[in-house]
Amino acid sequence: MAGAAAEQRRLATVVESWRERAVLVVGDAMLDEWRFAESERLCREAPAPILTLRRRITAAGGAANTAVNVATLGGRALLVAPVGADVAGDELHDCLDRAGVWDRTVSEPHRPTPVKRRMLAGNQILLREDSGDPDDPLDDDGVGRLLTALSCATEELRAVAGGLAPTLVVCDYGLGALPAPVRAWLVAHRHRYATVALDAHDLADWRGLNPTVVTPSFAEATRLLARAAAGFGAPPAPARTGGTGLHLDHPPNDPADGPSELVVGTAPGGVGRATGPTGEPTPGEGRVAMTGDGLSVTGAGVTVNATVGEGVDRAGLAQARLAELRAHTGADVVAVTLDTEGAIVGGPDGAPRRSHSTPVPASHAVGAGDAYLAAMTLALAAGAPLPTAAQLAQLAATITVSDTGTCVCRREDLLGALGGTSGGGTHPTLVGTGELDAIVADHRRSGRSVVFTNGCFDVLHPGHVRYLEQARALGDLLVVAVNSDSSVRRLKGADRPVNPVEDRIALLAALSCVDHVVVFEEDSPADLIEAVRPDVYVKGGDYPPEMVPEAPLVRRLGGQVRTLGYVPDRSTSAIIDRIRAQADAAPATADAPADPVRPAAGPPTAPGPASTPATPIPTAEHLGRTT
Q1: What CATH superfamily classification does 1-31+59-113+135-230+315-415 receive?
Q2: Which of 418, 615, 399 is nearest to 6 (CA)?
Q3: Which of 150, 206, 222, 550 has its CA 20 to 30 A from that of 187?
Q4: SS3 85
Q5: Do the Cβ atoms of 523 and 487 come closer than 8 Å?
Q6: Which among 482, 454, 464, 455 has a CA at the least distance from the CA of 570?
């Protein structure tokens, strides 16, 4: 036990050592959109479900999500990438701002922001729609502005790092953000970066880069080896030659690979089973079977067929080919990711290292590879030994897959998994108004975005819980402000609240989606909003955000205002009315008073005649208004 504790402390020390390390991320940035729907019946026109959209969330994807993970893990992330001048681009900028990423993206008015839209029902992805055409390349002006941004960003990070060379992460997913002139520039300027990490669907484009680490999926690694075996390109040059020539050129009829996803930890069988090919084939390639050595080749290239390759020992094959992969990529370290089977990592010493992942549904694992890449890069940049970097990278990927959505690993979560204390985890759930400023500031230093909501929460019911869960999904931290008893009486009447504030905040603090609860005496939460300066302010209701009284204040402070829908017949007033109706219908006895509802505080009310029903409370309180 003592040895395990010492190992955890050693790993936590590495996490602490990479804090504020300067990292430049360049590549294909995209927006991930998640649409959560409910379906209870099929349509008459076809055997297709009728979906009712309940909520929508967006997140940074691709290179942008790698930058977000670098920032939330404690590094100083700067992103250079082309982004469209469109709604998706605006939402992507918001995602970067909330995560604390230095946004140095280049606006491309005539090129849309790539978007991956997923529709889910019951936590199951029903379909995914991709927009963003890889055949729509950057024009000469766009390439020039991107190269200028890269040069300026490199010097900016060098300046903030006290003259030290920054770290570079290249994310090439075949969406056109890294055309040949940009790749050539990065190869020619490799000396300006201390540590270079490469995640590319097509590693053949990057041989001259000589990266510190590459993180191909098994399909990407197999495709590179197959093309080399088939003679697509010259023999591998010695590693670390420093040359600028690109290696392993594509055959003329082999266009760049299309977008695909790294899936870490997808459960074998059942809902999490990844069906179809493990890697998306290059357009124009024929589907071929994978032989025992993994090197089946067609006239135009190679692909991996999941159903034929199920019997192949992917871990053993990757381990046997690590030296070849290092030679063909020029990388010091190769980490071949194996989805459900973890990863195989090899370095200059030739000793392979194996890590394992946890099976989860596929909808939980989107972007886990970005977390793996970010942690691996930060650890190597901080000088950690390869076994330590591999261990931290796998842990970062594994702890991000607990829920549906794009995976982001936070420094405090990683430290918590190591048994350490995090910047935000040491704070109590119930806090006072005087403590809130410092607590929120501490969370923000850890890269967490803050969601704020308020209400009476008098009789906590499922509608409240669902509302708060939806609010929590809009950011990294949920602060709930609760009206005091006197404030509730002024707003709701002398017979409210039913439950005193001590009971109300205790129930809220017990919810896993609530991070902090604070009580306020005023009728308006304006002072708390000023103090918290939330990234997202949430109110319930079916009215537009413009009708929220606090909206001008929140926007002046740089935040967003969101309104969430409500669940019909789930309200405090409806619950109280049902209790009173049942009490009125039942005969009164000496041991059972006619009206069991008693105010928890405030002056008593005069009882009416036994035959007169209690005055009903207005039923405007529902989930959306969080009362």
Answers
A1: Ribokinase (3.40.1190.20)
A2: 418
A3: 222
A4: coil
A5: yes
A6: 464
* pLDDT tens-place string over residues 19-48: 899 999 999 999 999 898 888 788 888 888
Q: Report the half-sphere exposure of 283 (CA within 13 A, side-chain side).
A: 10
Helix (H) or strand (E) holding 54: strand 49-62
Residue 472 in contact with residue 448, Cβ under 8 Å? no
Alpha helices in 137-211 (DSSP H): 140-160, 180-188
d(CA 520, CA 527) in angstroms, rounded, equals: 9
Phi, psi of 164 (to 5 degrees): -75, 145
Q: How far apart are CA 456 and CA 623, in angstroms?
A: 11
Asked whether the whole model's pTM tops 0.70, one would answer no
Q: What are the boundaries of each domain within the chain?
A: 1-31+59-113+135-230+315-415, 429-576
* CATH number of the domain located at residue range(s) 429-576 in this protein: 3.40.50.620
Q: The tokens 């999490």 sit on which residue?
A: 272
**Catalytic residue numbers, as ranges:** 370
Backbone phi, then psi, for 192, in 5-degree steps? -80, -5
Q: Tokens representing 427?
A: 């704070």
Both tokens assigned to 444: 């923000």
- Cα-to-chain-centroid distance, residue 240: 35
Report the SS3 class of residue 399: helix
